[in-house]
Amino acid sequence: MGSGQSKQEATGAGAAKDRKFGNPDPAILPTPVDSQNLSSGSLTVNDSANTSNVESSGAESKCPMHREDGSYSYDWLALFRPSFPHGPTGKKPLSEEEVKAKIARRATALDASFSSPGGVCPVQHREYNVYAQPIDPSNNMPENPNQLPAPQQTAPLSTNRVNSSIPKGGAADGVTWTYPSPQMFYNALARKGKLEDTREEEMESVVALHNNMNEKTWKKVLEWEDATTFPLSLKKVEDGKAPPKLLKFQGRPKDLSPKAWLKHNILGHPLPFDRHDWTILRHNGTTVRYVIDYYFDETRARDESNSGMPDMKDFSATPSLLVDVRPALDGPSQLWNRAVTMPFARWSNLTPYEYMPLWPTNAMRNQVTESMEVWKSIQAKAAGTSGEASSPESTKTLSEDEAQALKADIAKAVRDCRSVCTRVNRCKSDDECSKASLDLTICMGKVLCPLQHTHFQDSLAKSDETKIGLTLERLGQCVVLRSSQHDSLQRK
Predict the structure, then answer these.
(1) Bridge partners (DSSP) listed for residue 321
(2) Residue 324 forms beta bridges with which residues?
(3) What is the distance between the alpha carbons of residues 95 and 85, in angstroms, rounded to a whole number?
(4) Which residue(s) pair with 134 in the sheet?
(5) From the CA atom positions of the chain, what is the Rg in Å?
(6) Using CA atoms, how far apart are residues 303 and 483, in angstroms rounded to an integer?
(7) Among the listed ranges 27-41, 245-259, 291-305, 435-449, which one has the minimum average pLDDT value?
(8) Distance of alpha carbon 277 from its chain centroid, rounded?
(9) 215 sits in which H/E element
(10) How far apart are CA 190 and CA 186, in angstroms?
(11) Count of beta carbons in the 10 Å neighbourhood of residue 175
(12) How far is CA 441 from CA 147, 163, 253, 437, in A?
């Protein structure tokens, strides 16, 4: 990048260096928060792109297999209906009230007693995401947001979250999605092994750019919805119809969309650095899936001092981040809208929507090689990641100053914890050894991991049993990490 500011702009959105910030947790839009009362919302981050389809109405099986022989059923004709409905069988659209009732039924079913008659699955399972975190069945998100410092973190990060303007599908009016805090974003990157050389002080900019990019995407989705529901959009206000809402989303950075493949292989366009699929819930209960490709044009990066901290609604603040939004070709109506309705709306000046050009500029052509390297890196990480990513921090190359500081910290920790270490070496029973080992971890953590140790002490002072366990686990992970880094230095 040509300047510090333009580097910030690219880094925060996942475009600089290897564009690793595309979206650490698929599209990292989190839990809904009521815009009328932010303190009443459940603040959790979406760590999994998977969604549950458990149904709980009395006429439906509560087990995932619908047929008696154990096979799955699917209504393939739903693909060719004008708009894919959001209904339990794929045949009947749901109203807003029915959507809310459906979510309530799903939550109630998971709390039902084991002996409930009427085809209820005989074993009650608590739901977890791919990171072994218990999730709320009403929105498929973790019950408790991860706001604790990561094991490799050395500086505190803000836990404040920003309310988005994106309405939450299946929730009451006024409820919107909220964006992750800098701490949650950092934890997501750490968990997926994408931190690399990211510094804590960059996270405020990363989150600001991430939020701006998602708001820009939602604006373009609304422009598509306004244009393709014409002339229904003209009656929306007088009929009191609610605007569309974001029902669910999925980050698919390793999946190249057909349009992106065509642009790259036929027209010589750079590859996108990220892809999202957003499912929109309309007021009549039908859903539409949108495909979004994110591109980066380094030549458009701004040099202003505030370019790394754009306002969430300033859509001109990030010109280097290009968004290509369109409905997925899930049926004939979507094909018609893309081929006829939107082009006609643009020709008639009925929409402000602007297409991202198919043909690349000369500046974009010069970035094809770099985009291919980024794409290969994304594919390699996807192939080597399953569940909890292994931390690369123990093998990370430390600077000379960092190495010297670590050696000094280890020496001090050994001196301060000498008596506890003696207890570990002389313990005899399992209980005695367990207590001595725990004391050694806490003692070493006080020197090697002061940030994590402070959070552990705070949880002790508040007698928060849940937090005590979590903070102690983070403290132990940090001590092991720092010890592994020191061992690596010793072997050199």
Answers:
(1) 296
(2) 293
(3) 11
(4) 128
(5) 25
(6) 41
(7) 27-41
(8) 12
(9) helix 203-228
(10) 6
(11) 21
(12) 22, 38, 38, 6
The pTM of the full predicted model, rounded to 2 decimals, is 0.68
Q: Encoding tokens for residue 316? A: 């001109």
Per-residue confidence band for 475, with pLDDT thresholds at 50, 70 and 90? very high
Beta strands in 97-244 (DSSP E): 135-136, 141-142, 163-167, 175-178
Distance, CA of 453 to CA of 458 (rounded, Å): 9
- Return d(Cα 252, Cα 356) in angstroms, integer: 20
The model's confidence at residue 74, banded by pLDDT at 50, 70 and 90, is very low
Measure CA 101 to chain center.
26
Please classify residue 129 by burial: count the beta carbons closer than 10 Å to its beta carbon, then call 0-12 exposed, 13-18 middle and 19+ buried. middle
Q: H or E segment at 277? A: strand 274-281
Q: Record the tokens describing residue 482, joined without a space.
A: 């720092």
Which pair of tokens denotes residue 480? 């092991």
Distance (Å, rounded) from C-alpha 322 to C-alpha 273? 10
Tell me the two tokens of residue 278: 């957003």
As a 3-state breakdown, the chain gives helix, strand, coil percent values, each rounded to 5, of: 45, 10, 45
Residues 434-459: what's their mean pLDDT? 94
Lay out the sheet containing 245-251: strands in order across: 245-251, 274-281, 287-296, 321-327
Tokens of 297: 């044009």
Helix (H) or strand (E) run with residue 324 in it: strand 321-327
DSSP one-letter string for 353-400: --PPPSSPPHHHHTTHHHHHHHHHHHHHHHHT--SSPPPSGGGPPPPH
- Residue 28 structure tokens: 């990292």
The DSSP output letter for 456 is H
pLDDT of residue 130: 42
